[in-house]
Amino acid sequence: MATAFSATLPLHGSQENRLLLPPTRLAPPPPSSSFLGSTRSLPIRSLNHAHASRRSPVFAVQEVVKDKKKPTNSLLITKEEGLVLYEDMILGRSFEDMCAQMYYRGKMFGFVHLYNGQEAVSTGFIKLLTQSDSVVSTYRDHVHALSKGVSARAVMSELFGKVTGCCRGQGGSMHMFSKEHNVLGGFAFIGEGIPVATGAAFTSKYKREVLKQDCEDVTVAFFGDGTCNNGQFYECLNMAALYKLPIIFVVENNLWAIGMSHLRSTSDPEIWKKGPAFGMPGVHVDGMDVLKVREVAKEAVGRARRGEGPTLVECETYRFRGHSLADPDELRDAAEKAKYAARDPITALKKYLVENKLANEGELKSIEKKIDELVEEAVEFADASPQPGRSQLLENVFADPKGFGIGPDGRYRCEDPKFTEGTAQV
Amino acid sequence: MAARIHVGAGAATALSTFNSKKLVAPPSRTNLPARSSKRYIVAAAGSDGSKKSLLRVRHSQKLIANAAVATKAETSATTGTGHELLLFEALQEGLEEEMDRDPHVCVMGEDVGHYGGSYKVTKGLADKFGDLRVLDTPICENAFTGMGIGAAMTGLRPVIEGMNMGFLLLAFNQISNNCGMLHYTSGGQFTIPVVIRGPGGVGRQLGAEHSQRLESYFQSIPGIQMVACSTPYNAKGLMKAAIRSENPVILFEHVLLYNLKEKIPDEEYICNLEEAEMVRPGEHITILTYSRMRYHVMQAAKTLVNKGYDPEVIDIRSLKPFDLHTIGNSVKKTHRVLIVEECMRTGGIGASLTAAINENFHDYLDAPVMCLSSQDVPTPYAGTLEEWTVVQPAQIVTAVEQLCQ
After folding, report:
1. For residue range A250-308, what is the model confidence (pLDDT) as tens digits?
2. pLDDT value of residue A417
3. d(CA A52, CA A55)
4. Contact status of A139 with chain B (Cβ, < 8 Å)
5. How far apart are CA B84 and CA B90, in angstroms?
6. Distance from CA of A3 to the nearest CA of B (A)
7. Contact flag A196-B153 (C-beta cutoff 8 Å)
8. So where are chain B's domains?
9. ipTM of this model?
10. Which residues pair with B134 in a beta bridge?
11. pLDDT-based confidence at B58, cuts 50/70/90?
């Protein structure tokens, strides 16, 4: 049932994609590596060690040469694609940097979780989707919304709590929604978005099979390593595989759940292995390399569109900042941070584009400038936008405001003028 | 196309407010002069002007005889047509009609498909509509409730069944955070037209965990509506209304009421989700109740009438929001309120209702609001103990006597 995932040209030396097919096609498992169950704080070294000792045979549709010499006409992307990817990642990074600035200047409040360092995952997956495909995220959702097409203005306004925000200021940082671009949230509790994503995928299948519509929409659910110990994750893996839903489960494994290291909280830290346990392919990919992510994403999205069912993709990635802007980030090792900073996905893509003559420095600089201006403009727009008025307080509680019931005078409460003013007691 | 069915706000004003297409002289009641006991309301046309349905606000003027949960077939099918069925069949009929009407309506839950539903509410539907429209889910309440919510956000209208309402405790994350809140946190972009339904309440020695009253736990969740059905008529009507509503609605059924038999109209009808039902008009005291306790109240009412009391019994039906108009009119008339419910004493629907009445109608009360609830006890298995945790008719009689002194 699983299709083979082809290996891709690496951006970072000899990093390999980890691919796992259903057990029937695997050689007997190699002896387990020493890092499992250990509490060592330098997971990078351990993971590399794990890679080396856990080589599984890979049935590749096309073997690609894995050395540094790149055949001239086997580039992974065209120039246009490359620039789109670059711009999207730059947008993500600049936006998040601006969020940090604005937060410390008192323009936004509460919990703000930034995505710096993980851009390759968002860009790698979402730039392959159409507008009618759905994306479901967690509280670290600004960049997912941006990649999907929500305007920077709308996201920034939402963060500032203004009416022009994508959720009218009612959601905030952790609840980015867009009906137009099919961003289904933005969830504050981890794991609670995964069933919603499963439902969106169920709708696709329902539209095809019951309503007999032409529907190829897929759903991509993003969540982290911490979520992978949560019941909802497993319940949804089961249902998605059972009903063969067009969904891709993307684990953004940045190794840390606030201050809890993935290795300290997970009996078997290799999350991709949990896919085949439920009957779907599990793939591990270098999440700091947008081209690798994109190649895996193409295959996973293709599977889903063809009706072959779900895929679990574990992206090894890293967040350069703390869990949120309130997190002092004291537990993570400086050496670990430095190692991943050296693998910055934006720098890597820039290098790839320039080295392969897909773009020159000038073009990339002009993209960066354009994005800077866009983000600045978004801040100005958000600043200038009005805050929600009192009348907005009760408006969206119910889709049908009759749900507020009938008041003592016999009229529906929503007909009471005080209701629309937002001063009614409900 | 959602036909807007307007039901008179407040049973007492119904006749004067609306023109009735069909008026049948109701049998008069012995105690009250010239008060018709049946009210017929013609619904306003649907928004496209196409459909007029005949709605009847029903109540039983006859006191229910004998057992607390048995009921005789109603004599109120005055058009002469109508068909008799059991409450679970009424639910099924409502569900099937809505599934026929709108292909986006689907069902998901444990054993709803091939098994036909553990209480047979979805019997035959999988054969008719297929395994995807009547989805047998694995045992994962949180995930399949969330799946229903995601499906609702993307265009479907799922009816999610909790095999027992108590199981939905596992789905609390999804019901509270997603079901209730997503319309608001998305700034109104996504609607969640789900119906979450299932049997709850104290049954016959089912044990503590299968005897829970989840309405008290869910009532604080903003953004949801809760209704409780108690007769085949309102079961079908509320089921249809809940499915058509754009809001998430939780429909509470009761394990012991599924075999109630009643004659219901052949014509299509729905019940208003936000309205209470006048069961028995009276003068001396207002008794507010819902679900199974309605039958304990009616049994007590029989005794009370023999003792010379005239209780007004209202089945509140809408647990959230409360129909303060019907309730208020009643309080203003009788000046005494007794609430009889199955929830626990602490934090139940009765507790909220007491607060709402005190807040809104304090001036009209001649006595404190009394609330009879179940004991704050995990429902015991032993039959005698179970009986003592739940409000019994004798207690209701005593309470009325006390309040009416």
Report:
1. 999 999 999 999 999 999 999 999 999 999 999 999 999 999 999 999 999 999 999 99
2. 83
3. 6
4. no
5. 9
6. 26
7. yes
8. 82-265, 277-404
9. 0.84
10. B107
11. very low
d(CA A343, CA B177): 37
Which position among B59, B183, B210, B254 bears the catalytic label? Answer: B210
Tokens, residue A349: 């893509």
Same fold across B82-265 and B277-404: yes
CATH (one of 3.40.50.920, 3.40.50.1220, 2.40.128.20, 3.40.350.10) for B277-404:
3.40.50.920
pLDDT at residue number A76: 87
Local structure of B234: helix, strand or coil: helix
How far is residue B6's CA from residue B271's CA, in Å, rounded to a whole number? 9
Residue B335 falls in the annotated catalytic set: no
Is B210 catalytic? The answer is: yes
Q: Evaluate the CA torsion angle A423, A426, B6, B8 in order and state its sign.
A: negative
Q: What are B345's two structure tokens? A: 């004493």
Contact between A283 and A20 (Cβ < 8 Å) = yes
Average pLDDT over residues A312-340: 94
Which of B149, B160, B185, B357 to mutate against chain A (most A CBs within 10 Å)? B185
What's the DSSP call for residue B342?
E
Classify domain B82-265 by CATH number.
3.40.50.970
- Contact call for residues B56 and B26 (beta carbons, < 8 A): no
Q: Are B256 and B292 in contact (CB under 8 A)?
A: yes
Concatenated DSSP letters of B352-370: HHHHHHHHHHGGG-SS--E
Rounded CA-CA distance A417/A422 in Å is 9
